[in-house]
Structure formats: C-alpha cells, structure tokens
Amino acid sequence: MASNQYPISAIQQIIKAGGNIVKEYHISSLITDSRRISNAPEGLFFALSGRRNGHEFIAEAYAAGLRNFVVKEGPELIMPEANFLIVSDVLSALQALASHHRESFNLEVIGITGSNGKTIVKEWLYQLLCTDKNIVRNPKSYNSQIGVPLSVWQINEKNNLGIFEAGISTRKEMVRLEKIIQPSIGVLTHIGTAHDEGFESRDEKVKEKLLLFKNCRLFIHNYEQLINFTGTITVKECFTWSTKFKQADLYVFSETVIKRNTYLRAWYKEDEIECLIPFTDEASVENAIVCWAVMLAMGYSAAETDGRIEHLNPVSMRLELKTGINDCSVIDDSYNSDIQSLEIALNFLNQQNQHTKKTLILSDIFQSGLQPDVLYKQVAEMIKAKHVNKFVGVGKALSKYQDDFDIPVKHFYPDTPSMVQHLRALNFKEETILIKGSRSFEFESISRALVQKAHETVMEINLNAMVNNLNFYRSKLKPGVKVMAMVKAFSYGSGTFEVANILQYNKVDYLAVAYIDEGVALRKTGITLPVMVLNPEASAFDKLTEYNLEPVIYSFGLFDDYIKYARQQNVLDYPVHLKIDTGMHRLGFENFEVETLCDLLEENRYVNIRSVFSHLVASDAAEHDEFTKTQVRNFEKAFKLIEKALGYKVIKHLCNTSGIVRWPNAQYDMVRLGIGLYGIDAATPATENGLQPIASLKTSVSQVKKITNGDTISYNRSGKLGDNGKVATVRIGYADGYLRAFGNGVGKMLVKGTLVPTVGNITMDMCMLDVSDIDVKEGDEVIVFNEQQRIEALAEQIGTIPYEILTNISQRVKRIYFYE
Fold first, then answer.
1. Spatial separation of the C-alpha atoms in residues 227 and 218, rounded to whole Å
2. H-helix segments, 298-356
C-alpha cells in the first residue's frame, strides 16, 4: 500500500489516456486483480489482458467499490460514478505510470537480475543494509512485467535506497523493466537454465538480461560468468568476483565447512579478507558471495561486511499451509513481516474457505518507512477490509496502537513468550490461522504449537505450479471454452479443500468428484463451485440435493432410481449430466440406447440436463487416432439427438487432459482437466509441455549401517551388498504408498543429489537404500520424487502409470501446501 497520491486527472495525462473524468479521485493503490482489492476508494484498476481478460471483471471490481479503471475498451454496463481511462495497451499504461513515479524520486536503486538467486540476494541485501538505509523493495518475488511496476509504485519520499529484482522469460522484456527500475547499481546473480526456452540461445538470454544495467554507474557480477560478454557491458565501473580467476576484484580462494557454516577466504585490494556464512549449500554460498561483493563495492569495510553476513537469516518466500490442531488450518509465514507481504498473505488467507473463522497472528513490523501511527492505522484498515475475525498482536508497538484495530476478537501481547504462555486461553479451534512475524520474534515456537504433529515423511504441494498448469491449458483453449477440474480421489492424492480452494479462487467453471461423499466434503469446506458427481449412489440422493451436487446419469437403472427419488421428494428441474459411452465401455449410455434415452427426456420435468459428455480412450496415443475420430463422430451424433429431444442447448465436453492439446477441434463447450493440473501429460514430453510438477515426496534417514560381506538386508534375507557396503534406513514404506514393487533395487531415491537404489524388500513403514558410495548421516533428506526424480520415472520403474503413484500416497503422509 503506497502512501503516495495522484489525482486521477494527472494519471490520465501521464499515461496519455482518452476517456472522460466524471469525478476527481486521488489514487494511492494500483490494482490488477479484482479478487485482491484493498483501499477501494483510492484504487485504480488496470484491466490487463493475459490468460484472462481483465475487462470481464470490471463489474466485479465496481461492485467492490472501485471507481477508477484503465481499459482498452469501455464497459458494456453503465457505471455512473466511474472514470474510465482508455488506452491502446493497458500493461504499457501501468508501466508508464510506474516509470513516471520512479522518476519523481532521486534515490539510489540496486537492480538485480539473473536466472537463480534474485529474490534471495534481494532479501539478504535488505537484511544487510536496512540498519543504514530506508529501503523499498519488491514484495516476495514480484519481478515480472506486472510485478515490477507494482513494486516501484511503493517508493515514497522517506526511502533512500531501492532494491528491485527483474525477471524475464523472453526477448524485449528487459528494456521495459529498465525504464521502470532505472537502477544506478546493477547486480547479476547466477545464470542457469531457467527460461532458456524463451530465447534462441543462452547468449541471447544473457545479453537481454544485461540491458537492465545499461545506464548503471556500477555493475557487480561473477567474472567467469561474463568472460565472453565483455564487449556487451557498457557500464564504466565494474566490480567482479570469482572463485577461479585471481584478476577478479574479490577472488575467493578458500571455502571450508565448519559445522553449519561456510568459512571463506579471499583476496581483495591486495589484502586477505575472510567471511563466515551461516549456510553450507552451494546455492546459498554463491548468493552470499554476491552480497559480499555488493557490500564491498558500495564501500563497506571488509570487517563490517563480515560481521553482518555472519548474521544472515534464511529467506522463506513461500507461505506454507499445514494441518493444525483442533481441526485448524495453519498458514505459516513466520519469517517475514512487512506491509506489502502482509497484504499478499491476507489474500491467501481469504482464499481459504474450509473454516468460517479467519485468524491473524502478527508481530510488530519493522523498516516500513512510515511513522508508527500511520503504519498501524494502515495495518488495521487492511485487516478489517480482509474480514479477519480474530487478531492476535505480538509486540510493544502493536500493543500501543491496539485501539486502532476494529476486529471482533483481539488480543495483544508484548512478546512471543507471553503469547505462547496464553496459547491455551486463546482457544484456537476450527479456524484458519495466518502466522506472520518478523524473524526477531521467533514465531517458529507458535507454529510448532499450532501445527498438527506427523511423522517426517511429507508431500509438498506447490500451489503456484498448479496455477501455472491451469493457465497453460487455458492458453490452449478456444475462446469461451470452460474448464472442469477433476478433484476426485483426494485430488489425485494432493488434497481436497486445499486444491479446490485454489481452483475456485482461479475461477475454474466446474469441479468433478467420483462419489457423493467427496462432494459433501467440498461443500462443508466452503466450496461453492458447481460440482459434478461421476458415480452417484442411489442411497445417497438426499445428500446430493441437500448439498447441491450434480449427478452423472449413465444408465437407465440409475435414471429410473433418480426420477423415482425426485418424484417422491418433489425435486423439479434438477441439474444432471448424461454420460455417453463412445468406446471406453466403462460407464455410459451406448450408441444404440441414445434414442430410447431421448424418449425419456422429452417433457421430463424432474431433470435439467446440464451437460452431455463422453470419455476419450486414447487421446494421447497417435496410433489410436482413428479410433478417437470415431469416438468424436459418435459423440456428436449422440448430443445432437439429445439436444433435439430436449429443445435446448447443453454443455458438451469430451476432451480430457491429453485431448485438450492434441484434439482442439473436440474441445466443444468445456474440457475436463485432470492429471495435467498436477504437471503430467502423456501426450507431450515433460520438457516440451510447459508444465510444472506440483508434488514432491520427501522423507529422511533414520539410521545408517555398515554391511559386511555375507550380511543380508530386510525380510526373507532378500537384500545383499558387497563388502564394506552401507545402507540407510528411511522413513517410508508400503503403508505410506511406496509399494513393495519398488524393492530389491527396482526403486531409486535422491540422496544428496545422487540416485541410489533400494536394497531388499520394502517394509510397512521403512525401506533401505544402498548408500555405499556417498556420505550420509541420520536426519539427511531423502527425495522420493520431485522435479528431478519425476513421478513418471517412478511409474516406469514398476511398470505402472503416474496416476497410481500419486493416488497411492497414504493419508498418514503429511501434506504441506506452498504458495508464493
């Protein structure tokens, strides 16, 4: 939330917009998502057109109180109090306004780009410099063509340093971001494979990234990374670092791991200097060296820099949604507290519908650039606007301004120990709890107390990746085609309300479940989307209508059962779906039955046919394309007969995940998106389809044992190793869903980046891995599947399909949901 205000008439001039100003407003908030509106009276909505057309949500935004809009075309509805600024390109208008705002301030700005490490370096530089500077920075990883202007808009007159990261995915994007950020100091982080697909070559990508620094006075980079690009660098003053080349300004020649720290030695200005980094992993060490170089280049002494880097804290950019005690859901953001990321976290809290009560636990906010009275008034207004029911404030500042908070239930404590001491009295029960605290408050203790305990095998679900996958398929749809998301079988093992909430928030049109009780569970957790039930039971028709679930009718027997129920209960014109069997031969009316079905449908007042659909047998397989074409023809024949008998149009849907891409002419009115949501599509190779795996299954080492020649491992003495072998026992077995078929070397897991095979039979709760050739200790992380070790690989190991791997993961495996 920015403290700046611009008259709407001035903004019209800045962005060179047409349209008429019907009333003068003062704008302080830029809004690009109608679901994330705060401070509506001072908000300006940009109707961006991407995967979704922002113009379709103007009415929704107007109803929420917004009165100022930047659009490409005027609205169809009359909105008498609204100003519409008409431009040829809405995104360009947003960027032009942010660029103008940036030019209004004379402050030092650090611009950061790279393939990896941008956000970590930005957050660590903030930690290192915030004691000296009043800093404005991107919230979370807002580094895109939209995120950068929204971040730069936060600059106010109290800031004397900006730190902004810029991310690009294709050509001609960085020029736009450079005009908005206008950095004076440039920082290039690690260049890797991310977004390679958007460029003809890696060199082209590097040159595009270097455009961010074309007007900088100082550029900091890894010497060896740009050794072939010296002619491209136009910055007069460069500061380089390297672990290989002595001619770099900072030559790091020694790296030693001491317990959980990394001790670095380097040559700088002909002196040997040192630095202790509180991390040991390769990525963190490289990111810390980047920060070391930036501090030295900005004039900080070696001793001062070392002292500050030694106290760097880990950066968590992800919200974690976990199962809490007393039927609570816990959103853990306990390492980060500023007003911008608070708004992001509150938006995520509002996406959760599983509990009617929403609770916020918040610490004092530091380094906001605002006076405390102004800051906490803004915080209080934001919390009220987000409809928080219970508020727990922790810290002396929040306690001082507690009268500003108009919340139904509120509690204040001077520090974290005081709150933990009164935890039982706060009576957390059946509510969604957002924990958001500055690191110094050590809110980890609150998180540990509120999160339900579970064993150490966890499945992490990346909700951002799911949204990416949803949008990937939306980009393949013809205009107007709806999306039905399949959330049956515990959402393919990934969760129920957690997945349904994110799909509802991202406006899918329908959900589909297998059985009525799955639909009832969704309704009880606040899901209001239409829900189709694929296999309804006649004995539970009362639950069907009670919870407004829509049954699939696939046989004459089921049709008769439903009509009998509807007649007895006087349920008229109820929405149902008809399934046609065009070749799967699982469920559905066969071709020869359709005419009889039409006779039953004529003038039937008990049902309203919402959709007619069928299921493709082999939409992913080119060798069966002729059969698929036959299915398409049979389906068209069936739905035309049904629509003629009904006298009205129905929704037609045939395509499953693979069919969406391979059979665009069969998309009809709606598609059913299933396994593709979870990052898997058999129709195209994983490296080509733009999908992201959403799930990672992780466990840990319980014990490590040396094996001598002749020793055997696991039941039936099935496993053997050579002399001086070594096994690690890990906390996952067939009761967790790691099937016995993976035993005896068939299955493999990742340990410290190395794929190692199983040894012996898989047992109920544990299994053993051959770690003879790597250094492993108790507690080390073990990855069953993730982006590197994909689910498809596991399925191939035991001759099955990814569906079976996902849906077999036991409910006793703890699910943690991440959202950035």
1. 17
2. 302-309, 339-351
- Helix or strand or coil: residue 380? helix
For 459, the 3-state DSSP assignment is strand
Q: What is the pLDDT of residue 392?
A: 97
Q: Give the H/E segment covering residue 284.
A: helix 282-297
Sheet hosting strand 135-137, strand order edge to edge: 135-137, 161-165, 108-113, 185-188, 218-222, 237-242, 250-258, 261-268, 271-277
The answer to whether the CB of 747 falls within 8 A of the CB of 757 is: yes
Residues 6+ away with beta carbon under 8 Å from 294: 110, 121, 125, 185, 187, 220
Let me know: does 587 contact 579? Beta carbons within 8 Å.
Answer: yes
Structure-token match 């950095």, residue found: 183
User: Is the pLDDT assigned to residue 490 strictly greater than 70?
Assistant: no
Q: Compute and round to an integer the Cα radius of gyration of the chain.
A: 29
pLDDT tens sequence across 510-541: 999 999 999 999 999 899 999 999 999 999 99
Contact 380, 353 (CB under 8 A): no
Give the tokens for residue 659: 């069919």
pLDDT digits (tens, 9 = 90+) for 560-598: 999 999 999 999 999 999 999 999 999 999 999 999 999
Locus of tokens 């080119």: 622
Flag whether pLDDT at 545 surpasses 70. Answer: yes
Q: What is the pLDDT of residues 147-189, one digit of tens each?
A: 999 999 999 998 999 999 999 988 899 999 999 999 999 999 9
State the CB neighbour count (10 A cutoff) for residue 442: 17
308 or 33, which is more confident: 308
Scored b (16 or more CB within 10 A) or e, 621-639 reads eeebeeebeebbebbeebb
The number of beta carbons lying within 10 Å of the beta carbon of residue 457 is 25
In this structure, what DSSP letter does residue 354 have? S
**Tell me, what's the pLDDT at 2?**
46
Marked catalytic residue, from 118, 205, 488, 652: 488
| The predicted structure's pLDDT at residue 1 | 40
Residue 31 has pLDDT above 50, yes or no: yes
Q: Determine the number of helices (DSSP H) and then strands (DSSP E) in the chain.
A: 25, 39
Catalytic residue chosen out of the listed positions 524, 564, 715, 752: 715
The three-state (H, E, C) secondary structure of 491-522, written as one string: HHHCCCHHHHHHHHHCCCCEEEECCHHHHHHH
pLDDT in tens, 725-764: 899 999 999 999 999 999 999 999 999 889 999 999 999 9
Q: Which two tokens stand for residue 302?
A: 């070696």
**Which amino acid makes up residue 9?**
S
Burial grade of 403 (CB within 10 A; 0-12, 13-18, 19 or more): exposed
Token digits of residue 363:
């610490």
Q: Distance of CA 553 to CAs 468, 601, 611, Å?
A: 33, 12, 10
Which has the minimum average pLDDT: 313-317, 619-623, 634-638? 313-317
CA-CA distance, 651 to 668, in Å (whole number)?
Answer: 8
637 given a catalytic annotation = no
Gap between the Cα atoms of 759 and 747, Å rounded? 9
Angle, vertex CA 690, rays to CA 689 and CA 696, nearest 5: 105
**What size, in residues, is the chain?**
820
Q: How many Cβ atoms from other residues are within 10 Å of residue 605's Cβ?
A: 9
CA distances from 781 to 457, 698, 728, 754, 777 (A): 10, 7, 11, 12, 10
Q: Does residue 715 carry a catalytic annotation?
A: yes
Distance of alpha carbon 14 from alpha carbon 97, whole angstroms: 6
CB atoms within 10 A of CB 452: 14
Residue 465 CA, distance from chain mean position: 5
Amino acid 292: pLDDT: 98
In terms of Cβ atoms closer than 10 Å to its own Cβ (0-12, 13-18, 19+), residue 765 is: middle
